UniProtKB/TrEMBL annotation:
The active site is at residues 455, 830. Substrate binds at residues 561, 617, 744, 765-768. Its EC number is 2.7.9.1. Keywords: ATP-binding, Kinase, Magnesium, Metal-binding, Nucleotide-binding, Pyruvate, Transferase. Mg(2+) binds at residues 744, 768. It comes from Kouleothrix aurantiaca. Coiled coil: none annotated. Its cofactor is Mg(2+). It catalyses: pyruvate + phosphate + ATP = phosphoenolpyruvate + AMP + diphosphate + H(+). Residues 423-503 form the PEP-utilising enzyme mobile domain. This is Pyruvate, phosphate dikinase. The keyword Ribosomal protein does not apply. Residues 519-868 form the PEP-utilising enzyme C-terminal domain. One of its GO terms (molecular function) is pyruvate, phosphate dikinase activity.
Amino acid sequence: KKWVYLFSEGDASMRDLLGGKGAGVAEMTKSGVPVPPGFTITTEACNSYYDNNKQFPDGLWEQVTEAMKDVEAKTGKKFGDPANPLLVSVRSGAKFSMPGMMDTVLNLGLNPETLAGLSKLTDNPRFAADAYRRFVQLFGKIVLGVDGEKFEHVLNVAKGDTRQDTDLSADELTEITEQFKQIIKQDAGVDFPTEPFEQLRYAIGAVFSSWMGRRAIDYRRLNKIADNLGTGVNVQAMVFGNMGNDSATGVAFSRNPSNGDPALYGEYLVNAQGEDVVAGVRTPRPISELQAEMGVVYDQFAAIAKQLEAHYKDVQDMEFTIEKGKLWMLQTRTGKRTGAAAVKIAVDLVKEGVIDEATAVSRVEPAALDQLLHPMIATAEKDRARKDGKFLTSGLPASPGAATGTVVFDPDEAEHLAKDGHKVILVRTETAPEDFHGMVAAQAILTARGGMTSHAAVVARGMGKPCVAGAGELKIDYKAGEFSVNGQTIKHGDSISLDGGTGEVFAGSLSTSEPTLTGDFAAFMEWADKFRKLSVRANADTPHDAEVARNFGAQGIGLCRTEHMFFEGDRIDAVREMIVADTLEERRAALAKIEPLQQGDFEGLFEAMNGFPVTIRTLDPPLHEFLPHGDDEITALANKMGIAPSKLHSKIESLREANPMLGFRGCRLGIIYPEITEMQARAIFKAAVAVQKKGIKVHPEVMIPLVGDLSELKVQADLVRKVAGEVIAEGGEQIEYMVGTMIELPRAALTANKIAEVAEFFSFGTNDLTQTTFGMSRDDAGRFLPLYVERKLLKDDPFQVLDQEGVGQLVQLGTERGRSTRSNLKVGICGEHGGEPSSVMFCHKVGLNYVSCSPYRVPIARLAAAQAAL
Ligand code: ADP
Ligand code: MG
Ligand code: MG
């Protein structure tokens, strides 16, 4: 079996087999771009290694040694030959890039003999000593599993407070390397291997092993990447960016990945190697300065970037190294970008004629739009904070979005606090892959060191989290648990706010403001709308929500939960009076107080939706949520109502349910107390008449919740229609309305053909339908559901991602059966799932008319619906 492919044998189409990095270097090699020679060990070999009890599969090693001969021939160097030593890097590379999640060893092949040879050959003992120091450090950490901090510590002691790594002399580096070897001997219990092929064999095994390392597993879980893809291993001749001041290493994007600006964007470091740029060892310089410093190389690089972008028809993220004035390309991949950049780049590429509108629409991940829909800190708010002396510092705008939270320095603590529901901002000098779990947990990340392509920046952008990187004025004291900046000290646990789009950092919690849909974003969404078949509505309970939803392009309200209106202000008192009323008269009296308030709310909604349909659900209160809890609250309410507290107490006691979610709620309430439904219907239709008299067309859709049997719906629908008839006749306006039901019980889905005799529309309430289908309480599933997902008993949390196999089947079947009775039955979905991309795609597939989701997710649903139709 062929386990090994020379770079000259592969191409971009072989990502599955060679991994993204291997396919990328192969494609570059094929296109004539200068790439150091090398070869890729396939992902199949990695999987076979795991199937094989962590042994190399048969033939792999022979193919590796064979391929090494080819690299020797192409470079004219020999592996292990002191006279002219070949050094290689051993690099991991899976199908999907996992930045910093797996490991790379550089300068492999060095030992005391080849070191002496390299030193003599290059006439540069310092360079050789530096290369050796790096190799021993990386090999010790990655292959032999020694704690990297120990090496860092030695290095930091040697550098002292003021010097950088480039200031270390050859002798110092040699001394440091000796200390590294001692640490390795102590910790790993082995002598540092000197035989180059032995080093190579170990390193390949270590890359295979890193696939199942904690960081890699965490990353895959977060990004929903399968565990069985395996990683490729790339073995490649080294080129050296650390040979002096005519050498450099860098990374660059063909366009700005943060805001989409169409200009080369990146950073480089002179006299540096490999990961120095990413690791934030020194703060790198912007790529534009390379133009002044090494004009010819810069132009060559810019041309290659253009060539690769045109070739792949998308933004490229590239690594390069300059060895003594000669440019080498080491990696290219599709650039990860923020949601904002994704939209701008897609729009620009269409304008440049590189891709068409459909491709543009398919390019942007719906979930990535979330970042554009995040709150931001308004300029006025920032000005105010500045006046109050709350401005702390600014760093690089590494990943956009505003965030506030309390300062935490330790990633483990960030994880714990976040689990308990705290909003934290992780503050670090720099981040490393070990900190990943803390970054996942934090609202945002702030670092003192590192550039736009530092680990913190790359990872934050990938997660769509705000990040300010390289805020160089921060002085972090981990021990004291505080940082100081510009004369202010911020302690662990204090609140700060940051704007990852501008890099500003403030003390305290600043208030954030609403995002808008304008410019490129608006244009892009219009393209999406050309393709989609599903309508997108919003779940909105207040005129303000409705307004937001309209601005994001909602085509109606798919769910207005009337009970949510009851929580505002002191309305709750009237509602509580209604709930605890003993007699019909008492209840009618309480309802009479509520009716005008409801009518006012509905008028606001109808006006905000300006002609679009508005679905209003009759009361579905989990009663316990409305009742007063503590003794004090009960006494206060009793006093207001003029009854004895003990009487109220026993009333509340009598309303207590063992299982409120399956209790006296939904249409059951309106059936037992028809006066409630009656009041709501009156409020709805009076509002409709009033608004329509102002010249705004109104389409109310009255929705009866939690129906299990046709008879339930019939009772309530008859009542609504009766009231509607009266109010409309009285008002003298022609109102086009519908009465329908939510489908949120399996029995309703199963008997949908009957229910559709009365219902003019269905809306699948998939939150409750998931709850009732799984028999899992939404409110209590937190104890076990996350573990189910972690242990892969369930692929996703079914309350977040629609369970297509089970709940989805009821949606599909309910739709079909409903339409068998009423062919023009309008069907939608109004659970959380209405704004979740894969669920939206499912709704498209089974022929729903619309999805309804929270106002901020409307653009996401619009895009997902478009992609479903493409
Ligand atoms: P990652 O996947 O984390 O980007 P890489 O395998 O790309 O890891 O390598 C880490 C660093 O080492 C990068 O900066 C890369 O450019 C550099 N590097 C890898 N191989 C070589 C090589 N053959 N010569 C010089 N630098 C290399
Ligand atoms: Mg890389
Ligand atoms: Mg419900």
